[in-house]
Write a structure and sequence with these properties.
By secondary structure, this protein is mostly beta strands. The chain folds into 3 domains: 105 residues, Immunoglobulins (Immunoglobulin-like, Sandwich); 76 residues, Immunoglobulin-like, CATH 2.60.40; 78 residues, Sandwich (Immunoglobulin-like). 2% of the residues lie in helices and 47% in strands. It contains 1 helix and 27 strands. A hairpin with a 2-residue loop joins strand 8 and strand 9. The relative contact order is 0.13.
Amino acid sequence: MKMTQENLSINKGLAFNTVLEYKEDGKKVFMDFTDYTFKAQFRTAKNNLAPLVVTVVPTVVGLGQIKLSLSEAQTSMFPGTAAFYDVLAKSSTGNPEPIFQGTVALTDIVTQWENTPPITTASVLSGVYNVNKTVELSANEVGAKIYYTVDGSVPTTASLLYTSALTIAETTTLKFFAVDTAGNLEAVQSIIYTIDKIAPTTVCNIVADASIATTDDITLTADETATIYYTTNGTTPTTSSTEYTAPFQLTAGNYTIKFFAVDTAGNVEAVKTISNITVA
């Protein structure tokens, strides 16, 4: 159960991350490593009496995949131009045995090994909308996998795998993150989409054919956060008409008040009319 993987490189003084894939006869083997414990050693000579031995704890990142990581402090300790590594695996019923062995080149070239998490972008920003929205998720790294939830729960790699655009037809909390091919995990992002397809309803405290005094306040009230527009001369109001901001009064005369509201999602109320108001 041993595999040799060459052609790795460590940049001294920089963090190191790599994923080893277990193969037999050149073919990837999807071994389930969940029953194993691991230990990995990097050393500067092929024997165990090397002057420098760095021991790390490998992590399982997939079937037949082990991730090795060294900190910046650990890589800066290596002298020379080459190091050797082995990964020992021990099952609950067996003895430790090497499953990966190989050689790594040590270089002072300042090129960071891939240890940067991917970044996922949603095509639609958080907001209030009055129509269904189609949301596309895209990661900035080729091969990264995106996992998501739409019920407000925190996603994991056991959550839904993003494969195509999502249709948001109701108020939804979308949470997502990406994992790149090196096993780097993005922090979970959260976006709230509020879908509101219902127009507001506005009422006036004055009824048709009413007689009021010049000192009486006229109020317009919407049943949700909205902008109200009105006219008092019988013309049909638009969003260019007077915006209602506070109760108002009218001088003596006869009036027809027309009004409507637009909510934050852009839903437009049908125009309402209060006719034949006498002000004296």
